[in-house]
Amino acid sequence: MSSNKVTTPSPANETDKVSSSFSAKKAKYSWEMLPQEPPKTDDLPPQYKDRTIVVREVRKEWCSVGKIVNMDKRVKRMDKSDSGVEKIRNKFYALVRPEEKEEEFDSPEFDKCTPEGYTEKVVEPLSDDEKQEATRKIKAAKGGIKVDGTNFHLVWREIAGYERLVLDDKTNDQTGGRVVCTFEDCFKYLGTSGVAPFCSAHRSHWEYVVSDYEDKGSITPIFFHSITPFTYENEEKKAERASTALNKAISTGTDLTPWDCYAKEFTDAKLPPPTYTEIPGRRRYFTTEQEANKVYAARQYVTLLRKLVPATSTFRYLNKNVALPNGAETAVLEEMKNWGMQIGISKYLDRESRASLPYPFGKEREGKQVASSMVVAKEHGVLYVVSNPHINYFGKTLTGDKLHEIKNQNDTVAKYSLMEGNLPWELIPLSSCPVDELEANEAHLHLANSFADLLRIHQQFVSDPPYTSPEGSTPFDAYPICLNKFTNAKYFDDTSFTKINQFMLKRYGVEIYIGPTY
Ligand SMILES: [Zn+2]
């Protein structure tokens, strides 16, 4: 058995230009898990013995990690202030897809915190053929094609020696038009040139940086995570440019970021504003958005786990929206190792023994009750699971109807279903609980779902399935993945783990161990 001693993580091997007195820091932030009895694994069935996080090799796009940074969305968001890029895009799409209507679904803080169930609208980008067809129509149109709601016309013309898609301002003959960037879904026309790639966004090479910060002025440890894309001109400038981008992401001057919300507490109380400091050794650089999001999600998730276990001191974590680390098993394992933490299974109960156990999240469903009959307007909502052998998705409802309709393309389940060619699923109500406890209970279920995914626990939510299982197997043989993508850290406290484990034991028949490595 290895030592139970756990202190602040050791510095990562990545380039770190801010490294200073790491040992001094260690003294102040002596957060340690309290020693625990290692789980008695002798009584566990063979499949759960010594079970820890299982790295799944194949992950489909719909079950990926919650994306905090999403460059596609960022580019679209920037368009909103970019004098009609959205309108140009809509017009271009409409040339080959007349029925397409754009709806406002984005919000300014969208990529900072994406609430559950509020996902990107699924619009298939134009194929190369469709783009060519749209371009052909523009070439054929005499005088170009008017962009609705603007004075612009889309024309095809020679500009600075290149044949390009050009945006022409008919009210201003002097401009000669601007080149429209036709890379991917871009359609930018400001700051473009005829030389490919056409726009600055497509000329820039983005990398990503993740780091941790603290408020050194606080007696209680207070920290948060940050992630951002950035660009740099050469290696010497890399750390500086990353710092600038991080600072911009941390404090926007509005009160939308976790740090801004925290700083507002001080200004509201007429106190001098707090200052944040980067924690030495925690900065990491990434060349892809996907890898950055994985490590970011893993750090957020392990922070949440640290909130659950008995420890020598408490801390305050400023991030609220926590990305669930679906498909980031390796990153979670690494981050847990940093903290000397292990997750496993400490108990197993067969189906008969579970029946009499308490249920932690309200009043359990009786018989075949449906969600709509379990709600009481303005008093009780319902917690449910959407399940099939591939996925589990835990959710809540105040009405019990219109859940995950396929026409709602912002919906996580509808989106999944769409991408998988309408795979059938069932919605099983779990319990009803007072409205003011609904979101907290739901957040606990998100974590339970993620434990079951990471530890590869058998499907337990099977009621009246509209699907069949392969010959010789049952739906209970499946190891569903967690379809929930985010949870909210504010709902977790030192009573949370007991409740989650009650649920795990009652519904999955397993108790989770989170504690020092043994
Ligand atoms: Zn572009």
What can you tell me about this protein's structure?
This protein has 518 residues and is an alpha+beta fold. The chain has three domains: 22-33 and 205-321, no CATH class; 41-65 and 345-516, no CATH class; 71-110 and 126-183, no CATH class. The protein is built from 14 helices and 18 strands. It has helices spanning 22-28, 71-79, 85-96, 128-140, 200-203, 238-250, 258-268, 289-308, 329-338, 351-354, 371-374, 412-419, 435-454, 496-508; strands at 145-146, 152-159, 162-169, 178-179, 207-214, 222-230, 277-278, 284-286, 316-317, 321-323, 341-348, 363-364, 380-387, 391-397, 426-434, 481-482, 486-488, 510-516. The strands form five sheets. Strands 5, 6, 7, 8 and 9 form a five-stranded mixed beta sheet that branches. Strands 12-15-13-14-16 form a five-stranded mixed beta sheet. The radius of gyration is 26 Å and the shape is globular. The N and C termini lie close together (5 Å). Mean pLDDT is 84; it is low at 1-27 and 100-122. Zinc ion binds next to helix 5.
